[in-house]
Amino acid sequence: MWKFSVRRILIMIPQLFVLSLLIFVLAKMMPGDALSGQIDPNIDPERIEELRIEMGWYDPWHEQYASWVGGVMKGDFGMSFRFKMPVTELIGQRIVNSFWLSVATLILTYLIAIPLGITSGRYNDTFRDQLITGYSYVGFATPLFIFALVMLWIFGFQLQWFPTSGSVEPGMQPGTFDYFMSKFYHLLLPALSMALITTFSTILYLRNEIIDTKQKDFILLARSKGASESRVYNQHIFRNSLLPIAAFFGFEITGLIGGSIFIENIFGYPGMGQLLIESISLRDFSVVTATTLLFGVASILGALISDIILSLVDPRIRIK
Amino acid sequence: MEANTTNVEIKTKEVIKSPSGFSVVGRELIKDKLALISLIFLIGITAFVYGTALFLDQDEIVRVDLFSIYEPPGEEFILGTDYGGRDVFGQLIIGTRNSLSIAILVTLMTGIIGILYGLISGYFGGHVDNIMMRILDFFLILPFTMIVIAFVAIVPKYGVWTFSLIMTAFLWMQIARLVRSKALAEKELDYIQAARTLGTTNFKIMFRHLLPNVSSIIIVTMTLNLAANIGLESGLSFLGFGFPESTPSLGTLLSYARNPQTLEYRWWIWVPASLMILLLMLAVNNVGTALRRAVDARQRRG
Q: Which candidate from A29, A152, A295 shows the least CB-CB separation from B146?
């Protein structure tokens, strides 16, 4: 177990290095630099050149890379030239919002997927099962952003049950109960839209897992020992089928990142995904670099978590 | 004696003869009515869209006409107009054509790269496989939407070709992994060993012997990928990082719905395009799953 984990973490280091290199090259290739974005007729071009030299624009690339990575390690992503504040501070506000959106989505996903997956697996090939697999089939073919638009249109605009943008009612006092409730209320529709679409893979996986486990010898043994049907399902089958689901938890993170870019833009939810799109259209490249890097690191960590959980659950993986 | 042997031969031939690939697929489609309808729908819509697009002038359709902004559906415009006074119906047809074309293009390109990568990695195995898989793992981890958006934003001369190349660069991994795992299993079989003993070149073994034996599963996966690619392209265009506005895709029409006013009051702009995407993806998926059943004898219905 430990040997596997350590080896897996060692694999992560080159991945992180290549990611940082890729993003650094991207950042260098981006048209214009931080200064050309704010051309002010009052500043003369020579002063801009001086500033560029001061910022190390003309240093050899490996020195620039080293100083950039050094800064990132200390949590310094430079300045945002549009919002006139340190990128770290700007991201700090957004990342909390995105974090809660992801948590809410994950909770809803499992709340929907586990009962549906169990029902579908337990009563496979019945009418209930066909309904559930039909739902997951349509969910598989529906792009997230179309579903989110329809949800926003129906529940946000037509029925007006939910707010249509923002993460909190303006003018609320942070820390109060109302503030918390308002945050929760704003979260619900985006999280639900994302959960209802991303849930299908978990449902289908759980269903197949249960149908597989149902035919195993130890279930036959439990039945022949006289265990009740509910005991067979809740104690024996459920526990064995749930472990692989737990292992996919880390991979969900990559999916959540992709989804949050759409969801946050459609629901006007001020998180990292919205920040990425905003800063690209504003050509605020220090923010673009920082968000891309953070998203990439999150995915790498997600894959790491999944692999480690998988090795805990399934010892065969460790031998590889 | 002579006559006897031929008789036996004929008999064995009759017993061994298995149905051809096409007839298996045909039987599967007849059993699965939904897939059959999907296939007919797909052929129909493709013919209609590509046919009609021949008579439509793309520049004419995307020309801004300030006198007919946001016209609701009516006599002059079947599906109304958008914020630039452009005919939504014309954009829908051109958009469907563009979306389909790019999805097919990307599917083919990812297929070619994936097959090559997977075959080489699986066939040679060992260190080559190890290194190639590490590279693939890295690509697999990157969040697709984010990385494509970042690339689209920095590419200087941006067009349809660059867009499809960027998409391809981050979508070939699934096919590669599949082909590699199949090739790994297949290369241990006797016929490959025999070919090797006969001195057949590696290149020839890979493409003449290995590839035909994994081709069915590749076709299935590429069909399913086609559906996914329609969704990915329209999603990126929706965010504004796909097709430029001068070449509308289905996602471009949907992106007008990012304006809350349009979303709430002007359904005719975005609902038809959404339905078109949904129907296309469902239809391609239906055909894909029917193909998958036809390939796997255990799942066949026909």
A: A295
Instruction: Give a yes or no: residue A12 inside a domain.
Output: no
Q: Which residues of B touch A278 (CB under 8 A)?
A: none
A169 found inside a domain: yes
Question: What CATH number is attached to the domain comprising A172?
Answer: 1.10.3720.10
Give yes or no for B143 touching A (CB within 8 A).
Answer: yes
Residue-wise DSSP of chain B: -HHHHHHHHHHHHHHH----HHHHHHHHHHH-HHHHHHHHHHHHHHHHHHHHHHHS-HHHHTS--GGGTTPPS-SS-TT-B-TT--BHHHHHHHHHHHHHHHHHHHHHHHHHHHHHHHHHHHHH-HHHHHHHHHHHHHHHHS-HHHHHHHHHHH-SS--HHHHHHHHHHTT-HHHHHHHHHHHHHHTTSHHHHHHHHTT--HHHIIIIIIHHHHHHHHHHHHHHHHHHHHHHHHHHHHHT-SS-TTS--HHHHHHGGGSHHHHHH-HHHHHHHHHHHHHHHHHHHHHHHHHHHHHSGGG---
A112 touches chain B (CB under 8 A): no
Q: What is the pLDDT of residues B4-37, one digit of tens each?
A: 555 555 555 555 566 666 777 788 778 888 888 9
User: What total number of domains does chain A contain?
Assistant: 1
The string of pLDDT tens digits covering residues A51-85 is 666 666 666 777 778 887 888 887 777 777 777 77
A161 in contact with B, Cβ within 8 Å: no
pLDDT in tens, A94-110: 888 888 888 899 899 98
Chain A residues inside the 8 Å CB shell of B264: 153, 157
